[in-house]
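Re-running the complex after MR caught last week's input typo. The corrected sequence lines follow. Everything else is unchanged.
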Amino acid sequence: MNRYLSNKKAIALFLLPALLIYSVIIIYPVLQTVYRSFFNWDGLSTATWNGISNYRDLLEDPLLITSLRNGLLFALVLAVFQIGLGTVLALACADPRIKGRKLLKTSYFIPVVLSVTVVCQLWIAMYDPANGLINRLFNLLHIPYQQNWLTSPTVSIIAIAFVNAWQFMGYQFSLLYAGVKSIPEQYMEAATIDGCSKWMAHRKVTIPLMKETYKFCLIVAITSGIGAFVQMLIMTSGGPGTSNYTLTYMIYRYAFMESNYGYACAVSVVLVSLSLLATVIINKTFDRNEA
Amino acid sequence: MKRKYMKALSVLAALSLTISLTACGGKNSDNSASSGNSGGASDGTKKIQIKVYAQHFDEDTAKPFDYAVEELKKEMPNVEIVLDEAVQDGYQKLKTYAATGNMPDIYETDWTTLQTFAKSKNVELLDSYPETADFKSKLNTGLESRLTAPDGHVYAFPYTGIEFQLIYYNKDIFQKAGIQTPIKTIDQLADAAKKLSAAGYTPMAIFAKEKWITTAFYAGLVTREDAKGFGDLEAGKPAALPTAFVTAAEQMKKLQEGGLFDANATNTNYDQASSQFYSGKAAMFVNGQWEIYSSTEKLGDKVDWMYWPAKDEATYDSSKGFINGAGSPGGFSVSPSSKNKETAVKVASFLAQKYSEYKYSVLGSPIVSVKVDKPMTGEVPPMMKRIADEVLPNVKSYATAVSNVQIKNVIDDNTQNMLVSGFTVKQFTDNVNRILAKENK
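Corrected-run output:
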């Protein structure tokens, strides 16, 4: 017993530095953010108690609706594109009949290691309505569709989401590929012996067994979508107007452009709450299906 | 067991020591450059170091600063300027300095930030300093709003006068497209846009990725209808946009629908827009009067500026003297936490005056804050000469600025939206009215 306790002490002591650092850089700021969200504070002057006014104002803020809509749209594009295409590519790369799989796996991951700024600049050029590759490609293929990709208030958010989805698809692919490879080959062999086609075997065996991987991938996609920011900042500066705002962009605006830190803290609380809620819902949904 | 325990403690101690050392090492070494008495003059007396946070990144910003510093050496040899180059980050670095109690002695910022600093006591009130009275006596006519804030206090010594926006145009392109100048009305400008588009030119290049320029364009139209400009949205406490503002919005929309702006305007930055104009792809360009030097250098005598068009010729003539630039406080401010506050105030005033001197005498710009008794030595571009001869002597009034950040931002957002097809004047007025109703309660 004594030995066990002293081991516990040793373990605690080993954990303490990390816990201290974590408390200082994560827990304390989070608690401060929640606390500050009830104040009227410009970041410099003495904060004045504001009660729930910041949250009440937030409910009436039209930017909240825009940001939530954009966040969800962004998340949807990420989930569909990254997980959908990621699955197809993961299954393809796991198939021994496909030649050059190593090269393919590497090439899918290249965009992930590129700088976000570089990728955004590249796509800005490609999205240019007059000289961009995409509109020119449509012209070349005689598709009668020309679009102001980054200046249309409705299309631009999807266009930006696609850039993010394209860049980080490799990350989701690597998770999904690991998931595919973790399934014992005997299962697939058994399914094939039972007369399943390749597609049927994947549908009935591979994909259901990758539930945990999908759960994680979906959480990553949804939380990344809700909190997206950098691509909007670089590609459109949130415009035209506020059409590309997300919750994180709102925080940036209220904190750094308007020095309204109390209100920005309230938006931060909403953002974190939504991310947590999304995570809980996804977990519950997957776990219920498990049962 | 004891040994294990001691081992764990040793690891902990080592870790703690490492972290604390890292923290010490990470401390800003810049502190050595903050104000204080250090270094020695050649005569053995101690020099007063004054840290100045100022823009110093191109010819326009570096040359006046360097000139002012050289002049300061003659005037105050016991003062040494330590430059902290300002970054274009919306004054975030400066706000971080303020939040960490590490303000430079003198800094340059805008009115929005000054308001925050005034509330948090990060800016010295200059009202009762003798330097302020002296500065006031030298101030050019009509520039009181550049020195004295709406609340009656003096927060900064300005070096420029009230700057304003112009429509630049390429005379050669206008001639080729058969466009008569001067363009006096909105209809004439819309018609010119059609002709220019038909001739294969972008009628007007505008770097509308930056929202302030769309606001400036709108301000140009507003001032033709209401001499006071945006200030009226605050002073009169209207709960909805006055008629002049709605008229200007309708005019802006008409011009957008007439094809004045490029479809990609809201995603065009300054470099792209200016290169369109300077390469002869765009016939017009909108920017402040400071663009005169670059445009003269790039296009020579092919470029000129025009007055803002109005709803009709009568309004065009009667409102020529209403300048769309709005004076708001800005320039060199002093930190209350400066160890050499008295000296810093003297230096801030001196630097602002010498900046003006350089801009007037070397660059030939008459848009400076104080009277300069030195003659113009530099070659004055013809466009600037026009401003000096035609505009400044005939100024009837300058527009007034809007201080409320929410009102300012909603105008910024929605003037940018006005450049987007499908965004209506009603949406514009509804969006702005919602904020006006809230802020002007």
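None of the earlier attempt is carried over here. The two ends of chain B are 72 Å apart (CA to CA). The interface with chain A takes residues 1, 4-5, 8-9, 11-12, 15-16, 19, 90, 92, 95, 98-99, 113, 116-117, 119-122, 209-211, 263-267, 405-406, 409, 413-414, 416-417, 419-420, 422-423, 431, 434 of chain B (CB under 8 Å).
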